[in-house]
Design a protein that fits this description.
With 322 residues, the protein is an alpha/beta fold. The protein has 11 helices and 13 strands. Strand 11 and strand 12 form a beta hairpin.
């Protein structure tokens, strides 16, 4: 089967501590520890692959034990992976602390991700141009992200840019290379402040839909899908490209789940959205793919970790139906 979705992004080895409440400054707390594969790009690729959509991942690692772990996990997932290997730099690693409510604090050492090269992306041009969807994010060298988005634009491949993590190097012209962006409310606030030099009022996501839509339109991207955690998500299209939706803007509520760990839920959403679009062959309203993404993200919060927590297509259907 041909590759349907290509994800260009980051691999990070996650080191996760679970504790009842977050430590205060200078305080120590007892918790539990686990480690596993992650990184925004890798999480998104795994989420998409587990929906039954043939996915390829392009990322950078060091020549070390954590890089070997990345290779093994990709193989175990039957995930096609192309690695930009840098012997002189470490594979990325993160520290994640999760409290009893499932909220998290994260610090990442990007390591090899900062070396993911534009040339490496251009070497995979054939792979990208034959795909149906390209997914990128901002957790690696942005020149590699730009190159991948340019290839997708050249060959009319739908591109999704998850505008996370917050990255001061992001420019408006890079943002405009994407067809769809998937920020959460914090990332959206950053985009408006950083790129438009405007302030966003606190609690802006409680605005009337029409006002939210106008704010989204100022970013100049065809489709904005804002994830809002327990409040679901908000979708805003421009007037030219509605992607089969009848409404220019709308909300979808969050699915009811028992939250254990929200780490990686945004990645689950982006990977689920790409998968949903492929599964419905772009023939149905965009809302159907967004609903599927919402469900993938919700179900991912019931399990600890990031990439390992991504649910399968069968698990999503069993819980939520068709």
């Amino acid at each position: 089967m041909p590759i349907e979705v290509v994800v260009v992004g980051s691999y990070v080895q996650d080191h996760c501590w679970n504790t009842r409440t977050f430590p205060r400054v200078g305080e120590s707390r007892i918790g539990t520890f686990s480690t596993g594969p992650g990184g925004k790009g890798f999480n998104q690729a795994v989420a998409c692959q587990r929906q039954g959509v043939r996915t390829a991942f392009l990322g950078a690692i060091g020549k070390d034990l954590l890089g070997d772990t990345a290779r093994r996990f990709a193989d175990d997932e039957s995930l096609t992976a192309f690695w930009d290997v840098h012997p002189d730099v470490a594979t990325a690693a993160s520290s994640i602390v999760v409290d009893g409510r499932g909220d998290n604090l994260i610090c990442v050492a990007l390591g090899a991700n900062e070396r993911l090269s534009a040339a490496f992306g251009r070497q995979q041009e054939k792979l990208i141009r034959q795909a149906k969807v390209l997914v990128c994010q901002l957790e690696n060298n942005l020149e590699a992200t730009r190159e991948a988005l340019l290839i997708a634009r050249e060959h009319k491949v739908l591109s999704i840019l998850n505008t996370a993590p917050i990255n001061e190097a992001l420019t408006l012209d890079l943002l405009h290379l994407a067809d769809v962006i998937t920020p959460n409310e914090t990332e959206f606030t950053f985009l408006v402040r950083h790129l438009l030099k405007r302030e966003v009022p606190p609690g802006f996501f409680d605005m009337a839909d029409g006002l939210m839509h106008l704010l989204c339109r100022e970013l100049g991207v065809q489709t904005v899908v804002m994830t809002l955690g327990e409040h679901g998500c908000f979708v805003s299209h421009d007037t030219v490209q509605r992607r089969g939706d009848g409404d220019l803007c709308y909300r979808l509520p969050a699915e009811s789940v028992t939250v254990r760990d929200t780490t990686g839920a945004g990645d689950a959403f982006s990977g689920g959205l790409a998968a949903g679009l492929v599964q419905q062959a772009f023939a149905k309203p965009f809302k159907g793919a967004v609903r599927h993404a919402n469900r993938v993200a919700a179900l991912s919060t019931e399990n600890p970790g990031t990439a390992p927590a991504m649910p399968s297509f069968d698990a999503v259907r069993e819980r939520f139906g068709a």
